């Protein structure tokens, strides 16, 4: 399984050292950022969202959608990267990063969003870090033109 994320185990102290207080609160203490304030709530660039704790790629921008809920929403995580476990209150399902156990948010099913999985991963912006897709290199344009590549001859 080449795609299995490497497990990351750190003590609370180590996490405090590398995370901001806000990241620590949400990732390690299962906090929730205030609705509608997240950096990625209305963010639709092309790329990958990594775990803010350990850097494991978790979501593709192509699975992000506008749920209107006030947090970033994805209909699918990358295979094998996200753990699900029932909340103690029995009503919600928590999602965490498989590699480091960082709290991402919750997953909701059957809300009727027009997405392939009918699921909404409601993720804290603080828990993820966007990495832009590599810019596609434009094909060389100067085969027979008289562009600057030929000047100074
Ligand atoms: Zn992680």
Automatic annotation (TrEMBL):
* Signal peptide from the UniProt entry: none
Query: What's the record's note on cofactor binding?
Result: Binds 1 zinc ion per subunit.
Output the Gene Ontology terms for molecular function.
Answer: metal ion binding; peptide-methionine (R)-S-oxide reductase activity
According to the entry, every stretch annotated as the MsrB domain falls at 12-133
Reaction(s) catalysed by this chain's protein: L-methionyl-[protein] + [thioredoxin]-disulfide + H2O = L-methionyl-(R)-S-oxide-[protein] + [thioredoxin]-dithiol
Briefly, what is this protein's role? Catalyzes the reduction of methionine sulfoxide (MetSO) to methionine in proteins. Plays a protective role against oxidative stress by restoring activity to proteins that have been inactivated by methionine oxidation. MSRB family specifically reduces the MetSO R-enantiomer.
Could you say which protein family the record assigns here? Answer: Belongs to the MsrB Met sulfoxide reductase family.
Q: What is this protein called?
A: Peptide-methionine (R)-S-oxide reductase
Q: Which organism is it from?
A: Sesamum indicum
């Amino acid at each position: 399984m080449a795609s299995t994320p490497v497990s990351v185990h750190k003590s609370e102290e180590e996490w405090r050292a590398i995370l901001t207080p806000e990241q620590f609160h949400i990732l390690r203490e299962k906090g929730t950022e205030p609705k509608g304030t997240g950096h990625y709530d209305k963010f639709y660039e092309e790329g990958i969202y990594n775990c803010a704790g350990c850097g494991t790629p978790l979501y593709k921008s192509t699975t992000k959608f506008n749920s209107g809920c006030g947090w970033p929403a994805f209909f699918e995580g990358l295979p094998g990267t996200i753990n699900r476990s029932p909340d103690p209150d029995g009503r919600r399902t928590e999602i965490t990063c498989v590699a480091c156990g960082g709290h991402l948010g919750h997953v909701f099913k059957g809300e009727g969003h027009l997405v392939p999985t009918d699921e909404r991963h409601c993720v804290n912006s603080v828990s993820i870090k966007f990495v832009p897709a590599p810019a596609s290199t434009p094909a060389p344009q100067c085969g027979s033109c008289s562009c600057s590549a030929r000047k100074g001859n």
